[in-house]
Amino acid sequence: MRSIHALLWVGRRRAAKDQRLAGVAILFPVVIMLLVGVLFGSNHPAPIGLIIKSNDQITQRLVSVLESSNSVSLHYYNNLPQMQDDILRGRVVAGVEIPQNFMSQVDEGKNPSIDLIAPAGQAPAITARTIVTAAVAVVSSEWTAALQASKKNHISLDKALAEAEKLTNSAETLISKKVSQQQSPFSYTAPSNLVLFVFITLLGASSAFVDTRKLGVFSRILAAPVRPISVVIGHMLGLFFLAIGQCVFLVVIGRVMLGVNFGDPLALGVLLVVLSLCAAGASTLLGTVAKSSEQAIAIGTVAGIALGMLGGCMWPTSIVGPAMAEFGHIAPQAWAMDAFVKLIYNGAGIGQILPDVLALLAFSVILVVISSTRLRHVISNK
Amino acid sequence: MKIEKVSGTGSLPVLECSHLVKSFASRKAVNDISFHIDQGECYGMLGPNGAGKTTTISIACGLLQKDSGEVKVNGKELNHKSILPKRDIGYVPQDLALYPELSASDNLRFFGKLYGLSGRDLEGRINETLETVGLIDRRDDRIESFSGGMKRRANIAAGLLHKPSLLVLDEPTVGVDPQSRNAILEAVQLLSNEGMAVLYTTHYMEEAERLCDRVGIIDKGQIVAEGTRRELVEQLGSLDRIRISVSGMHREGAEVLRKLQGVQEVIEIGDEIEVLIPQARLKLPSVIEALIENHLPLTSLEVVEPNLEAVFLALTGRELRD
Ligand SMILES: Nc1ncnc2c1ncn2[C@@H]1O[C@H](COP(=O)(O)OP(=O)(O)OP(=O)(O)O)[C@@H](O)[C@H]1O
Ligand SMILES: [Mg+2]
Fold first, then answer.
1. Are A73 and A46 spatial neighbours (Cβ–Cβ below 8 Å)?
2. pLDDT greater than 80 at residue A213
3. What is the ipTM of this complex?
4. Are residues A117 and A50 in the same domain?
5. CB–CB of B187/B133 below 8 Å?
6. Are residues A152 and A218 in the same domain?
7. pTM reported for the whole predicted model
8. Shared-domain flag, residues A205 and A93
């Protein structure tokens, strides 16, 4: 007990003196949260280009749906090369060409296709794509539904269409109101950078452990009446507290400065605890396998970023396709992000995030068991 | 000259190691080593690189599992199950085992807490030990800003904090400037005179000669000879020398001393006379008497004993330092 206390004390003391740690743990994540949030999470509509090659009823309806969306603003073009040029220059994030036969496609009951031109993999382009796809779906289903209704109920097509449009409009206002009221532009970047940097910080912190080990401090600690298991517990608890401290700090920044609503506090607390445990275990493991502190930092940074990418800390896994998103769950970060998304976007409680929490707990148990065994071995043999 | 101390005969030895054996793979690093250290005694372990000094010390401090043998600290057995006897030992490792980014006092605070010190008690001890090693004015400076010698001294302070009854120092003066080296030797001497038992390993025979009451000469994992410096030297049959100056009259002086009983040889070196004689210290009065009787003006007199280097060479056929 006494020795655990002493180890926690010295860990705090060292952390306080470590400016690099303050940078990685606090400054970097906050700066990146802000940058990403301001650049990509903003509520400003994404500018998209539009070329209209037909002038029928459905096309007009499609354009009006797009214009009513808060998420995109429309720029009209006459020819494709000019629009492509503007896409390349970043004046618009994506371009849409509504073909001449758009109406006939819908009329024939086909799944209508329109051309969307967008640079690959950029978040605003993905927003544009989502909005356009949704708008096409809305318009074509309105048309189909109105056709069916007018035939069945013997009313005019125009009247049926007007009814369908009324329904769509009210639904859309409802959704957009709800979304824009609740979500801060930082709602994704805040948790994703928290998850990303908790792992990067903790994995990086293993370098301090490697240094200590090399200096022979652990032999000296064991020269005192201290059991190796106390050293293991003291070390891991220190890392755990570092992680939980960082989490709480970033959550407070997210909540107070960036207006992110992290949802149910109990569920959030449980999530942060298992996340921190997992990161502490990973850090200990790296500290016992790395040959030098430089190696620990290098491996820690690369692994932290790579697993962060897989786990959806750089971009939502929803954009990489279901197979890749599934594969990403080899990273604990993916489970943590799933849980955060449920908490923030779906207002989930502890019950809904339980599977993610249990998965993180499983990661933690495995990491803690392996790393504490290794740690015991390493400190008793210097 | 060294102050003579009475060893605690009758009381328990502070450290008693019996038949220690430790192998790494197929190499026997420690091969049946036994020794003991009494209260207030400074025991030197003298041996070349790789002799097994650090391995022996690590076993004695309970840091390394032994293959066989027994370690007792103040009569209590020390092994991986009973670690409490470790409290009586102050271990100063060969490596600099401190946190470089923390101040000297913070490092000591940490090690003090490990031994259960706290509050005013701890702060008092931190100041006392830093005083002992001459670092009190660098109390709040980071270890990494210290010179090599100062780091070594801080390393020693960390081993002293909890007032151990046995201080174990593993080559504390390796790579240290003369000034720090002297400070370290003086501190150890002071502690030893105050009654602390000391286990001191080194491959500098001057240090063992200056500090230690008893020396174990260790080579290839075994203690090849043990005893006071005198005993070791006598085992060898070497003779002491008395170096004498009688201003301007060395020729006459040499004549007189040659006639003295027990003298084996008299050599004139410049203005000085060297007398080879067994048990030189006991013969000092008769030497002085003879010189005075013959009205020879004695200006200086020094006893030079044969050194441990010679003993080591004789025992192993090798120099201490390669
Ligand atoms: N952990 C280890 N694994 C394998 N061999 C070891 C280990 N520690 C020591 N040895 C070997 O045991 C022998 C004794 O080493 P030890 O460190 O005790 O010598 P030493 O007398 O302290 O030498 P030095 O004066 O260089 O410090 C050496 O041959 C060394 O190579
Ligand atoms: Mg050694």
1. yes
2. yes
3. 0.76
4. yes
5. yes
6. no
7. 0.73
8. no
